[in-house]
């Protein structure tokens, strides 16, 4: 059955990077029998300009019927003075909440060829391939009660609540175990049960869910140690699963191990595996319209979409190896180009997109 991909380019470089991803999808359709239909929609500033809201009802209706969503990026200086509830970023939060995308997948991958771009020693990071699974819709960012109150002595006190229900832990654990099953079958659950009761429950539920995935080797690590291990010996990890705030911090730290924001895809999944796929970077207004942006994070988001929502593992692998081929050929957009490195060529957004398509077809 034909599956529907909703494409939301958004703002800034969104349109340019999405155009390259579409070239890749078109090549998979024409040469490898991928059976998908693309519909186009609006999100972020572009949606606000056209329909007065960053996640308008028209996009909501499209998102509901799509099997997967591919998003570019949102935001731009021209929207900075808008009221908070219609800013472009609200579009992202809106679609995540609307579709109940609770499982955020953030890979940190570093191709051997780009190891020099990391701030860590090449031998520590070359070939890195970690997947961080972050709970996205619960935990301390959403817990109640929250606020700032005045105590009897007149002093102010700020407070937030870290809460997780068993059902919330169960569903993120299932999501993480399923992903581990598609990878190296090792899952590290990151928490802080030595201090926090909620994390004691987290560990207990993850252990329980783990019984359903006997092939996956489960380990537990405190978040402070996990932060240390990520910068000391990151290649020890396969899949990590953690709550919203710990995941927010660890996934950004892991991303920076790779040294390039233009190379990292992400996914946010619902309970059934429907997902939204997007590069982790923003709309980069400073390079908008200049054919400079790196589209590889978006192209690798398509690979994740094929793997995790559309059940097309072999086509996902084709994209991954086409990207690897292009990097081996020495092609680099400005963000990953290091002047003077032998065998490398500086190329534009569209040139590197064309090269990925050529590698796919070769
Ligand atoms: P940014 O990620 O857009 O840019 C940071 C820096 O990285 C810039 O110098 C930019 O040129 C560069 N960069 C980013 N993506 C690149 C790519 N694909 N290729 C080459 N270089 C790239 O972050 P920012 O500048 O802090 O934010 C710009 C706008 O994006 C803001 O409006 C912000 O709110 C929004 N934003 C959106 C998202 C999202 O859509 N998920 C995420 C972060 C920021």
Main attributes?
362 residues, alpha/beta, Isopropylmalate Dehydrogenase, 2 domains, two-stranded antiparallel ribbon, 12 helices, globular, binds nicotinamide-adenine-dinucleotide
Secondary-structure topology with pairs:
Layout: E1 3-10, H1 14-32, E2 36-40, H2 45-51, H3 57-65, E3 68-73, H4 88-98, E4 103-109, H5 122-125, E5 129-135, E6 147-150, E7 156-159, H6 166-181, E8 186-191, H7 197-210, E9 217-222, H8 223-232, E10 239-242, H9 244-257, E11 265-269, E12 275-279, H10 296-308, H11 313-328, E13 331-332, E14 345-346, H12 349-361
Parallel strand pairs: 1-2, 1-3, 3-12, 5-10, 8-9, 8-10, 13-14
Antiparallel strand pairs: 4-5, 4-11, 6-7, 11-12
Helix pairs in contact: 1-10, 1-12, 6-7, 8-9, 10-11, 11-12
The chain binds nicotinamide-adenine-dinucleotide (NAD).
């Amino acid at each position: 059955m034909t599956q529907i991909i909703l494409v939301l380019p958004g703002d800034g470089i969104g349109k340019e990077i999405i155009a390259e991803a579409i070239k890749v999808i078109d090549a998979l359709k024409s040469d490898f029998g991928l059976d998908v239909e693309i519909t186009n929609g609006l999100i972020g500033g572009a949606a606000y300009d056209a329909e007065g809201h960053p996640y308008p009802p028209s996009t909501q209706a499209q998102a509901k019927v799509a099997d997967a969503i591919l998003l570019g990026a949102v935001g731009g200086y021209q929207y900075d003075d808008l009221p908070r509830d219609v800013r472009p970023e609200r579009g992202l939060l809106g679609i995540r909440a609307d579709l109940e995308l609770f499982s955020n997948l953030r890979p940190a991958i570093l191709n051997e060829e780009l190891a020099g771009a990391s701030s860590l020693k090449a031998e520590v990071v070359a070939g890195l391939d970690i997947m961080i699974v972050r709970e996205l819709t619960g935990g301390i960012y959403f817990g109640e009660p929250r606020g700032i109150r005045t105590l009897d002595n007149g002093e102010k006190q700020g407070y937030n609540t870290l809460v997780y229900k068993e059902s919330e832990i169960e569903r993120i654990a299932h999501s993480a175990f399923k992903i581990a099953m598609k990878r190296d079958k090792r899952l590290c659950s990151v928490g802080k049960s030595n201090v926090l009761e909620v994390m004691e429950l987290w560990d207990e539920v993850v252990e329980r869910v783990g019984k359903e995935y006997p092939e996956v080797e489960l380990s537990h690590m405190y978040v402070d140690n996990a932060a240390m291990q990520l910068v000391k010996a990151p290649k020890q990890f396969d899949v990590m699963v953690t709550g919203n705030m710990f995941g927010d911090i660890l996934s950004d730290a892991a991303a920076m191990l790779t040294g390039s924001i233009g190379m990292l895809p992400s996914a946010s999944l619902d309970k059934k595996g429907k997902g939204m796929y997007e590069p982790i970077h923003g709309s980069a207004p400073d390079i908008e319209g200049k054919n400079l942006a790196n589209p590889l994070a978006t192209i690798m988001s398509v690979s994740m979409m094929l793997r995790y929502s559309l059940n097309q593992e072999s086509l996902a692998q084709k994209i991954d190896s086409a990207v690897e081929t292009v990097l081996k050929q020495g092609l680099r957009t400005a963000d990953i180009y290091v002047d003077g490195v032998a065998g490398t060529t500086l190329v534009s957004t569209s040139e590197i997109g064309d090269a990925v398509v050529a590698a796919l077809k070769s």
